[in-house]
Amino acid sequence: DRLDNSLLVIFGGTGDLARRKLYPALFNLFVDGFLPPALGVIAVGRRGFTRDSFRQEILLPSLETFSRRAASMDAYFEPFATRLHYFRTDIYDPEGYTRLEQFLVELEEAGGSRGNRIFYLAVAPEHFGPVIRSLKETGLVPARGWQRVVIEKPFGHDLPSATELNRQLREAFSEEEIYRIDHYLGKEMIQNIMVIRFANTFFEPVWNNKYIDHVQITSAETVGVENRGGYYDRAGALRDMVQNHLLQLVTLVAMEPPASLATEAIRDEKVKVLRSLKPLDAAAVSKNAIRGQYGAGEIDGQMVPPYRQEKEVAPDSTTETFVALKLFIDNFRWAGVPFYLRTGKRLPLKVTEIILQFKSLPDILYFKEYGELRPNLLVIRVQPLEGVYVQLNAKRPGNNNYIVPIRLDFCQNCEVGVNSPEAYERLLYDVMRGDPTLFTRWDEVEAAWKFVDPISAAWAAQGQPQFPNYAAGQWGPPAAQRLLICDARRWWEEN
Ligand code: BG6
Question: Which residue ranges does the record assign to the Glucose-6-phosphate dehydrogenase NAD-binding domain (predicted)?
């Protein structure tokens, strides 16, 4: 892969995603010397900014607030800002695309972007299809050089809508040109999973159902739905987090070693995991798929309102803001090993981590008289702490035989000076150099919906859930705890 020059057109150029993630990521890449020298960025928006007012009102505050390189603003803001252009149009105005084409051609003639074009769809999902169609109809694609399209989640609402969206995309772009974002794949520790697994003799031999008792994956947030009630109330936690981020984590934990590190070799192994997921029928959904919705409660010492009173949320909404799932991967490596997943809004902590609990040794020695023997755990901390640790049992120092759990702990971002790049930096960089490894291929999206759709359908058939069923600030409804307690297990919470 090469870092070619190109023009990067951002639809939704004044929106939340662009301001919070894309401009800060581009700026950080710029400061660190990772942007191609002639990259031009075109922010497309409906509002009437001039290049200068866009700079002052959108770009500057975005970088000041969200960039981890904000301290470098004095030196780098000016040269960075000259790369950015603002282009005003309504994305439903065909004439706007014709003008945009002229504008891109002018920039291409003036600069060194060689006719390469990246289109980034940072707009609401209902606009994806129409924008793609207009790009094609008004001749913005095919580009004179190479072309790529970056598409944000959600990729559809279920399998039929995802299939339709994919069909529309494929009319203008080939599969290799489509970069489907799952920003979890850009996170440092998630990229680290394969390294930990396949570069350490310690782990690979025991990474299977002979030694692993179960896997827990938690992605918890303290925030509510913020300003996204309109979207979220139609999606819910299952579609918003499980279909994409959590199942992607499952694939990375469970996949077989790929034949090489080539993009398609890795994706081939990931999709096999998704295809091996044991489907949940209605009976299994009742037992193993727990949903919850938060009521009022306390987060960080502050009372917060119930989900049903959030902006743009129906007052009698039955949308889930919490999901806990027990799933199985029906293949030789994992048969019989439960994977417990949970995610939710308004939980006690912001934390994402993956825990592998190993099977316990036979309980026949004298240890238990000297303290509780804890299972061995391998914990991969994704955020906010980044690192990995192993929990072992060891003797407490002194003239006794007490056994205590100890940790071999590597904390990547505890060290002063470690400031990991953000997910979007890595992902944008990979789009520019044409490496789609950290993006989801269509068959992965498809297999994930095939697993998730029956759960939504079973929930819909169950009728009205008793919501709210957990107070903000709790770890979801009691049923989420019971899911593990019934299996004589527990969530490892207080890590
Ligand atoms: C997004 C979801 O994909 O991920 C949001 O749509 C969620 O609802 C977010 O808040 C969580 O991302 P992160 O990086 O903060 O774990």
Answer: 9-192
Q: How far is it, in rounded angstroms, from Cα 75 to Cα 78? A: 7
State which ligand 1 atom lies nearest to the alpha carbon of 225: 8
Q: Which residues are catalytic, by number?
A: 245
Crossing angle for the helix pair 442-462 and 159-172, to the nearest 10 degrees:
150
Q: Where does ligand 1 bind, in terms of residues with CB under 6 Å?
A: 153, 221, 240, 352
Give 483 Cα–ligand 1 centroid separation in angstroms. Answer: 24
Please choose from 221, 234, 320, 350 the residue to mutate so as to test ligand 1's pocket, defined by most ligand atoms within 8 A of CB: 221
- Return the biggest CA–CA distance within the chain: 84
323: part of which helix (H) or strand (E)?
strand 322-327
Ligand 1 centroid to 56 CA: how many Å? 28
Q: Is 17 annotated as a binding residue?
A: yes
Q: Whose CA is nearest to atom 15 of ligand 1?
A: 221
Instruction: State which of 66, 240, 320 you would mutate to test the pocket of ligand 1, scoring each by most atoms of that ligand within 8 A of its C-beta.
Output: 240
> Using CB atoms within 10 A of its CB, is residue 399 exposed (0-12), middle (13-18) or buried (19+)?
exposed
Specify the DSSP class assigned to residue 277.
Answer: B
Using CA atoms, how far apart are residues 494 and 218, in angstroms rounded to an integer?
A: 12
122 is in an annotated binding site: no
Indicate if the alpha-carbon torsion angle 256, 260, 265, 266 is positive or negative: positive
The pLDDT tens digits along the chain (495 residues) read 688 999 999 999 999 999 999 999 999 999 999 999 999 999 999 999 999 999 999 999 999 999 999 999 999 999 999 999 999 999 999 999 999 999 999 999 998 889 999 999 999 999 999 999 999 999 999 999 999 999 999 999 999 999 999 999 999 999 999 999 999 999 999 999 999 999 999 999 999 999 999 999 999 999 999 889 999 999 999 999 999 999 999 999 999 999 999 999 999 999 999 999 999 999 999 999 999 999 999 999 999 999 999 999 999 999 999 999 999 999 999 999 999 999 999 999 999 999 999 999 887 676 666 777 889 999 999 999 999 999 999 888 888 878 888 999 999 888 766 778 899 999 999 999 999 999 999 999 999 999 999 999 999 999 899 999 999 999 999 999 999 999 999 999 854
**Cα distance between residue 485 and residue 373, in whole Å:** 18
14 is in an annotated binding site: yes
State the distance from the centre of ligand 1 to the C-alpha of 17, rounded, in angstroms.
Answer: 11
Please give the distance, rounded to the nearest whole angstrom, from the Cα atom of residue 88 to the centre of ligand 1: 29
**Of all atoms in ligand 1, which is nearest to the CA of residue 383?**
16
User: Which numbered atom of ligand 1 lies nearest the CA of 245?
Assistant: 3
Number of H helices, E strands in the chain: 17, 18
